[in-house]
Amino acid sequence: MNRREALFSLGSMAAAGGLASRAGAVELRGVPKPTEMSADHLPTPARTGGGFRVLTEETDQKTVKAVFDRLIPADDFGPSASEAGCLEFLDDQLSGDYGAGKALYLQTPLRPEIEEEIMGSPQFLATPRERYETGLKALEAYAQENDQAAFHALSPDRIDEILTGLEAGEISLGDDVDGQAFFELMLQNAREGYLADPLYGGNRDMAGWKMIGFPGARYDYRPYVDRRNEDLGLTPVSLIPND
Amino acid sequence: MANERPKADVVIVGLGWAGSVMAEELTRAGLNVVAIERGAWRDTSTDFPPAVDPDELRWHTRRELLQPMSVETTTFRNKTGQQAAPVRNWNAFQFGWNVGGAGTHWAGMSWRFLPWDFEVATQTAERYGQERLDGLMGEGLQLQDWGVTYEEMAPYYDRFERIAGTSGKAGNLNGEKIKGGNVFEGPREREYPTPQLKDTNWMSMYRDTTEGMGYNPFTIPAGNISQAYVNPLGVTMGPCTYCGFCDFHGCGNFSKSSPQACILPALMRRPNFTVLTETEVLHAVKHEDGKTVKGVKFITREGEEGFQPADVVCITAYQMDNVRLMLLSGIGQQYDPSTERGTIGRNYSYQTCSSVTGFFSGAKMNPFIGGGALGVQIDDFNGDNFDHSDLDFIGGAGIMGYSTNGRPIANMNAIRPGNKRWGSQWKEAYARDYQEVANIFCQGTSMPTRDAYLSLDPTYKDRHGQPLLRLTFDWNRNDKSMIDYTTQKAIEIMREAGGEDIMVDNQTEASWNPYKQHSSHTIGGLVMGSNPATSALNPYLQSWDCHNVFSVGASAFPNNGGYNPTLTVGALAVRAARAIHETYINNPGPLVEA
Asked: What ipTM goes with this model?
């Protein structure tokens, strides 16, 4: 049940108590009586397992894994992005409102030169999901053309070289993809997956939080605020019980 | 008209802080009030309890409590003549999107403006000479007084602080300066409702450092309250737990001042109050004589249009929307920078900011212990608290050492300079620097100019087909000089505190754009004042052009102080509401002669 349906049923349940509908508006008089959680504000765990929903092509999965595991490799500071669940995180994010660009203003006209100059960064009408679809294909095409190999089969050093070139805006992925902006999108999402609550499919075993010493979804530091310059040694907690 | 609702005494457009404060005053005075809010009902226990609130990805990164740009955005350009572009993605501005408005997700910094901020024109001329003021005006600044003084505002500030439960320590009680409080603040009649918050590690370092340098540090007054409190409306608040999930989040503790925590529990119980949620006001509708309005036209979530008649219309939406609604309603005249005629859209200003970041080897800052308004500030270089005789600017900045949050995604670039943002080098740097980084923020004044203004965009429209608001703005010379000066002070403090590898982000070093800013504070466009040629509203926030239209928001500020705007918005709301029920209702007409 989404927010609107929740409010409608709230209205019908409590109509006698002062909630009524007029002209289609949600008319509230008095404090709404039900105190259960609003349905659309309950946490929604990532749907992991059972296969990818957006990154359905094997080559795309391998390409994004190759990128993510260079952006966040396995080392002394923790597991790699893919080991921490960042691919599942990304697929889940891209399959929902974020991937669909639901919050973005996507009305035309798009005037790329004007918008980029004024805003200081390229602007898009494409959604994040669409940008991954075109971007991953462009990365694979780049590897095939320049290295005669699949992107995921390249050496770690070669992938680092390509990523560095993208980050600096020195490598073109063709006319349809802004390589530098696509690098930023992947970097943002990889790190989000590594540092967001495990609820969303990444940050498995709270590895990202353990890396930096973030205690997670705690809600009360009153016992600690007066303890200065001290390693508090707090074990992180997640919104997932007992995770 | 189809779907015409029963007439109300007052209709409130937007139920954020300003709308809630006004609705509370007006219903308590016995008036029948209908509020119209385009967001949904949101409340503490049902929408952001502690089991839901500490979720950075959802609330901070994806901003799920904020109004999406797909609902409404603005367009932007640096100067007249340029083609404006729409702001398509999340940016500096943080419109509310629920009952409670931006008052639900704000950080909580609860400042009174300085006496000087209300009278920049008069006090600049008095202290530095009329010639100095004329010179500033000559280079394009539009300096003007608010038509109300700090002294007149003080009782309304006090009222709003009592409603909000603000925590803090007085620095000026009836003229007596008190060390430990802000000795530069205007006189207060009594102490804050709740005591100041506790220091974190970084705050105590910042306090000791600035005190040692001869400055006057104090704890920032906060809408994150320090102990249990019952406000004058009989609503109980709880103590802040320093959870670090404050701005962009709701508060599950009933400890962040918000309409939900402080006003709605009382307001919703009043039989003469009704709120229409998920309903958007399109514009106010004028009577045929054009001198007053008869109500507002709205559209429901199903796209059905309706009309709410009312004797008084209070436009209390976000700053940008207040201006836009006046333009869409045809009330007043659009400001034109070439003729300097018209008042709607005039005196737009922003907030001039910089940040200074330093690293402390081996430190354990424990940044996750935080609050939206948790910090220590010095006001020695704010407003006109220091001598500007030999400086080429007016105004200044509050300089704060803060502990707002340790959210891992938000801080992932806060690593020592020279490190890559990815790979093992990033992991090593972030694993170390997360605990060792500290920030100083300069929040500065902003003065309006002739060339900065708001107007309707000729090209881009919202989802209902109404034009978006267009912002024309760039940094001005005065504010750039001001922030250059105060940033140097902040760098000196960071060095003195022992910070290494110092990084400076002075936002005025490039042309303004909404994606790179650290402040959401957007000011003016529908300003109050005593002269109808240069202000849209009189000192009671009443439209000069339609006397039954009142508008409260940061849109009413003719210039921006070096502070967050909310407390001043709340105080203006109390003042406007009292003018309505004490005077206007009994004798409708202009409260001030033009």
From this structure: 0.96
